[in-house]
Amino acid sequence: MQVTGRNSDEQGVERTVERTLGHLRTLDREPAAASGPLTLEDLYRQHRMRLVRLAILLVDDAATAEDVVQEAFTGLYRHWSRLRDSAAAVGYLRTAVVNGSRSVLRRRKTAREYTPPHATTARSAESLAMLTAEHQAVVTALSQLPPRQREVLVLRYYGGLTEAEIASATGISRGTVKSTASRALDSLQKIMTNS
Q1: What count of other Cβ atoms lies within 10 Å of the Cβ of residue 17?
Q2: How far is 176 from 127, CA to CA, in rounded Å?
Q3: Beta-carbon neighbour count of residue 179 at 10 Å?
Q4: Pick the CATH number of 125-194 from 3.30.200.20, 1.20.272.10, 3.40.50.1100, 1.10.10.10
């Protein structure tokens, strides 16, 4: 389905994403139903890896994805006696993985946005006085960027970190690091041009 008004790059990216996720969906087809009632062990053996791949797509971190799936199975174990139909267990697990992934992402966001009490974000007058006018403009423009964009640029150009190291330090993917850096540089250019 093509939407008018979008450029070919966006359409190409969309096709690539659709092709990739479609391929993963094919690889992760539901296993054939076992005869007789399913046990928790059967569910774990048959569905664990598919649920981990789902969680990885949502949280973009394999270790965290494993934890999310483990929590989903733990929750199912706690409620197993109240489960009316073992076939509903797969739906329960899928929903638990999605909700657990959302919780992880919310906690990440909260942790990134936390500013300790009495933390100052302003630079001292002495440190700014030692900078040239051009450098002062850059520092001022940096302070106007959203926190994630500022983090990526500071870690890249001040910290000298690679994309992989920035991704690890901030808890975002390498692709997000690249796109965030690109957007941040564009924003910096606009801010500095309008100043």
Answers
A1: 10
A2: 31
A3: 13
A4: 1.10.10.10
Burial class (CB in 10 A: 0-12, 13-18, 19+), 105: middle
Count of CA atoms in the C-beta half-sphere (13 A) of 149: 15
d(C-alpha 85, C-alpha 97), whole Å: 19
Whether 47 and 93 have beta carbons less than 8 Å apart is answered as yes
Q: What's the pLDDT tens digit per position in 122-170?
A: 555 555 555 566 667 777 777 788 878 887 887 787 766 788 888 887 8
Please, what CATH class does the domain formed by 37-111 belong to?
mainly alpha
pTM of whole model > 0.85?
A: no
Q: Which residues contact 100 (CB under 8 A, 6 or more apart)?
A: 55, 68, 69, 71, 72
What tokens were used for 88?
């509903």
